[in-house]
Amino acid sequence: MSAELASELRRLAAEGSTGVLHAGDGAFHLAEGTIACADCRRTTGLDRLVVEAGVATPEEWRRAETGDLGPLLHRPQLETLALLSVFDAAYFLLATPATPEFQPAPAHWLAPVCKVAPPALVEECSRRGDPEAGPWPVTLVDRAPVVPARRIPKRRVMLTGGQAEMLAAADARRSITTLAEYLGRTTYGCLTAVRELTEAGLIEPPVRLTAPRHAADAQVAPLIALNARRAAADRLPPLALGGPGSDPEPAASQPPAQLPRRRARSGATTPAPERWKPIDREVLVRVRAALEELA
């Protein structure tokens, strides 16, 4: 966690400051020492969350941003989504070292419905654990594609609605940030689902990037793309999540594929038809039911 940013947030809270605290690729909007709004380029914007939840139309949101609030502030769900958006952006901003810069400014228009105390925000982000731990650190959230596993585990896996949604949307091309925006979900929630799916063996571990963020993008992007293409080429049929239809042996025990020997041209040969192993019907039913609940 960025100690400098956390310390600055506490200072502004103690002073009851109103304005914008810029930090890295986002900002905190404070009103009398409390946080009314937070945004980060790696997280889903509040506007997308609000529209996806049906709280407001895109046109209503545009009018609210220009000062014409209408009945929007009186819709109870707006407060919940605003709070989720603040904690979502804060988790990634506090995890990235950056020099904060505060600029006094009028209070954000969400100040009447969203008030988050900076000490409580810092404590919650700390409670969520080390952002760099595990196979999916926050530094990869917008840089590595989410690739479905090439081989699925033999054991059955029970998926939550959020996990099923992420697994269905994963296409070996889009990052967690992009998938969260597409689905209209918080980036932290999607990151948690991907971490759990990776531990369950349904998502491939990402390519680890060791170079600094500002210098690595041009060099690492081709490697990420190559990894995604290879993984996509080797994918098993979708929705085969384990059980009787899964691979009988782990990947490590499978012998490498052998090319067929060339035969003399004594006549045309008919290639053997490709055979697919049956997919567990029970698993398909559970996944379909989970996706229907999200529709």
Protein described:
The protein has 295 residues and is an alpha+beta fold. It has helices at 3-15, 46-52, 58-65, 76-94, 118-127, 161-169, 176-183, 187-199, 213-233, 281-294; strands at 19-23, 26-31, 34-40, 101-104. It folds into 2 domains: 3-127, no CATH class; 138-243 and 284-294, no CATH class. It has 10 helices and 4 strands. It has a 4-stranded antiparallel sheet. Strand 2 and strand 3 (34-40) form a beta hairpin. It is globular. Residues 210-276 have low confidence and may be disordered.
Mean pLDDT: 80
Q: Based on DSSP secondary structure assignment, what is the total number of beta strands?
A: 4
Contiguous uncertain segments of 5+ residues: 210-276
**Could you give the distance between the termini?**
36 Å
Strand order, biggest sheet? 3-2-1-4
| Number of contiguous helices | 10
User: Tell me, what's the shape?
Assistant: globular
Proportion of residues in β-strands: 5-15%
Radius of gyration: 24 Å
Percent helix range: 40-55%
Number of domains: 2
